[in-house]
Amino acid sequence: REKRLTLPPSEITLL
Amino acid sequence: TSSPISALNTALVRVVKNSNTLGIAIEGGANTRQPLPRIVTIQKGGSAHNCGQLKVGQVILEVNGISLRGQEHEEAARIIAEAFKTKEKDHIDFLVAELG
């Protein structure tokens, strides 16, 4: 089983 | 589990809705490298900018008492957008923390 090494990049939302 | 956030400088900031826009951009959320939403931009002329107390780099812990801990990006953004949109209040209370 592959271990995920990095978290997904953050999205940016303009509010 | 103990919270590292509790050891940081936190501030309760009230943003009055005195402009058509809130005027902040946020990044992050649960399951990202930035687990709590962080302010990356404050637009001039927006309510947040007019308030003068929110700063780029602060992380948002709570919005009107609603914790953003564990909320994914989209949900955190929705909570903030709803807080700005509702006519029940003329302001939004942000609990923010200064990092580093």
In short:
The complex is a heterodimer of chains A (15) and B (100). By secondary structure, chain A is an all-beta fold.
Keywords:
heterodimer, A: 15 residues, mainly beta, B: 100 residues, alpha+beta, four-stranded antiparallel sheet, two-stranded antiparallel sheet, 2 helices, 6 strands, 18% helix, globular
Number of strands of chain A: 1
Largest sheet, strands/sense/barrel of chain A: none
Mean pLDDT of chain B: 92
Mind telling me the C-alpha Rg of chain B?
A: 13 Å
- Oligomeric status: heterodimer
Low-confidence stretches of chain B: none
Polypeptide structure, described:
The complex is a heterodimer of chains A (15) and B (100). Chain A is mainly β. Chain A has no helices and one strand. The radius of gyration of chain A is 13 Å and the shape is rod-shaped. The mean pLDDT of chain B is 92. Chain B has 100 residues and is of the alpha+beta class. Chain B contains two helices and six strands. In chain B, the strands form two sheets. Chain B has a four-stranded antiparallel sheet with strand order 1-6-4-5. Chain B has a two-stranded antiparallel sheet with strand order 2-3. At the A-B interface, strand 1 of A face strand 2 and helix 2 of B. Strand 1 of chain A pairs antiparallel with strand 2 (24-27) of chain B, so a sheet runs across the interface.
Which helices and strands appear, and what pairs or packs with what?
The complex is a heterodimer of chains A (15) and B (100).
Chain A: E1 12-14
Chain B: E1 9-16, E2 24-27, E3 38-42, H1 47-51, E4 59-63, E5 66-67, H2 73-85, E6 91-98
Antiparallel strand pairs in B: 1-6, 2-3, 4-5, 4-6
